[in-house]
């Protein structure tokens, strides 16, 4: 299970160092793709396979399902870390997530979300009413 928040940055070659606590579970090879809310999602290979099976089962006749699968898989790439724990983030994913230098990686149960620091701060501190969110979660039994 992924937990925690980690601040770090890109080097001059667009490589990011995966924090060691996340790297242990993510592995030396993982899938990186466009995520929701303007971040990137990193999945260990075993979690990606589970998600892949679920998405394969979506009906091809459903327009929204096709659009979601296209969105998710068109940005997906396998990342292999070097001996220093660095992985190259493709330019198209950097542009999608508006990552320029500073990064925040957060553990979210089965995946790691990778955010531009500015975008994370905007999302986390300016856009969420946590009291209202807590009320909605109680409706879901949490």
From TrEMBL:
SUPFAM superfamilies reported for this sequence: AbrB/MazE/MraZ-like
Listed Gene3D superfamilies: Transcriptional regulator MraZ domain
Stored HAMAP family: MraZ
Matches recorded under PROSITE patterns: SPOVT_ABRB
GO cellular component, as recorded: cytoplasm; nucleoid
Location in the cell: Cytoplasm, Nucleoid
Protein name: Transcriptional regulator MraZ
GO molecular function terms listed in the Swiss-Prot or TrEMBL record: DNA-binding transcription factor activity; transcription cis-regulatory region binding
Keywords, in A-Z order: Cytoplasm, DNA-binding, Repeat, Transcription, Transcription regulation
GO BP field: negative regulation of DNA-templated transcription initiation
Record note on quaternary structure: Forms oligomers.
Domain SpoVT-AbrB: 5-47, 76-119
Family membership noted in the UniProt record: Belongs to the MraZ family.
PANTHER family per UniProt: TRANSCRIPTIONAL REGULATOR MRAZ
NCBIfam families per the UniProt record, alphabetical: division/cell wall cluster transcriptional repressor MraZ
């Amino acid at each position: 299970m992924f937990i925690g928040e980690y601040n770090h940055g890109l080097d001059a070659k667009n490589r990011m160092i995966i924090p060691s606590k996340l790297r242990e579970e993510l592995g030396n090879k993982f899938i990186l793709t466009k995520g929701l809310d303007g971040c990137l999602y990193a999945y260990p290979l075993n979690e990606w396979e589970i998600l892949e099976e679920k998405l394969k089962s979506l009906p091809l006749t459903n327009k929204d399902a096709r659009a979601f699968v296209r969105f998710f898989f068109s940005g997906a790439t396998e990342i292999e870390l070097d001996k220093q724990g660095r992985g190259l983030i493709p330019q198209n994913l950097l542009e999608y997530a508006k990552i320029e230098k500073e990064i925040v990686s957060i553990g979210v149960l089965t995946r790691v979300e990778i955010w531009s620091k500015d975008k994370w701060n905007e999302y986390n501190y300016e856009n969420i009413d946590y009291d209202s969110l807590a009320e909605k979660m109680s409706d879901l039994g949490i």
